[in-house]
Design goal:
The chain has 321 residues and is α+β, with helices and mostly antiparallel strands. Helices cover 26% and strands 27% of the residues.
């Protein structure tokens, strides 16, 4: 796919990222169904940092939202959705593993977790039929979740780590929150393993505030038409097809403000946007995210310029949509 060109658009300059925060997010063990550690981290982070934000949010949580979390700022018109879960594995019987979502790792990948006997660091193996197993010095409790051992690497232009999908989407949302006046930030669950939370969140948001616009703060793919370092990707479609009139508003604002971006067209992949589209609530939505290489592997890789343009575009959109 051709990259959107605009005379006003300029390549983003390298920015100093809060890599400590991003690394902390990536290292949290929270595969689908076990998102509460990320939720608690976000709440603690907000309590510590909101004194430096322009506006303080209302933190909305409770059993009716399970492990999801909503931040409300002012008079919201648009919501940012960022899912908290990651891919991983569940321990079955003996040393068998079942995938959580669609992990894509090679044999001998290091996996970590914890069960009733203590911390775990084991090795991923596959048999000739591609069934996954763990290699460890003892049996691991059934139902234990395992995730990639994180090796967070920062270079001049790139960040490489497991779970940039979607801890980088959360990072983006928290950075936008620093200056956000009106809007919702929604931290959702189960996205990597089929979803299930977005429908009731959308219903609550629509009934409470009449909000029916959403931006999906998630990470997409480097592909033959989307590359590193050329700006945040605005997705025209994936497996799901958003409403064209809404997507065109986003492209117009990106052009108007000279924010470097790329237009993505894919026939596979999905996100919280797909759940919004299937919900009974009349939501407009668009996936807007930095592209990465090596999705769902321990070595996801994102260009720093694309992170900057992601934050810049979200900040702009939340003001003007």
């Amino acid at each position: 796919m051709a990259i959107k060109k605009n005379k006003k658009a300029a390549k983003a300059q390298p920015q100093t990222l809060d890599t400590k925060l991003l690394k902390q997010l990536c290292e949290i063990h929270a595969p689908s169904g076990a998102e509460s550690p990320v939720k608690e981290f976000i709440i603690n982070y907000i309590k510590q940092q909101q004194k430096n934000w322009k506006h303080k949010p209302q933190i909305i949580q409770g059993e009716q939202f399970q492990d999801c979390l909503i931040l409300k700022f002012g008079k919201p018109r648009t919501a940012i959705f960022a899912h908290m879960d990651s891919v991983g594995f569940t321990v079955r019987y003996f040393n068998q593993l079942l995938a959580i979502g669609s992990p894509d790792a090679e044999t001998e990948t290091r996996l970590v977790g914890r069960d009733s006997k203590g911390p775990i660091e084991c090795t991923l193996e596959f048999d000739k039929d591609s069934h996954a197993f763990y290699k460890f010095g003892r049996a691991i409790d059934r139902g234990t979740t395992l995730t990639y051992k994180v090796n967070f690497v920062e270079s001049k232009d790139y960040i490489e780590s497991a779970y940039l999908d979607n801890r980088l989407g959360i990072y983006n949302a928290l950075k936008v929150a620093e200056t956000l006046k009106d809007g919702l930030i929604v931290f959702s669950c189960w996205e990597e393993h089929g979803g299930g939370a977005v429908g009731y969140l959308a219903d609550y948001m629509y009934k409470t505030w009449k909000v029916r616009q959403a931006l999906i703060s998630d990470i997409t793919w480097v592909s033959d038409g989307v590359d590193h370092g050329k700006g945040v990707a605005i997705s025209l479609r994936d497996r799901n097809v958003p409403r064209k009139i809404f997507v065109e508003k986003i492209i117009h604002l990106a052009n108007k403000h000279g924010i470097a971006h790329q237009l993505e067209v894919e026939g596979s992949g999905s996100s919280d946007g797909g759940e919004l589209q299937r919900s009974p609530v009349p939501f407009d939505w668009c996936f807007v995210g930095a592209p990465e290489q090596h999705a769902h592997t321990p070595h996801e890789k994102v260009h720093k310029d694309d992170i900057k343009t992601m934050i810049d575009l979200y900040t702009c959109l939340m003001k003007e949509l």
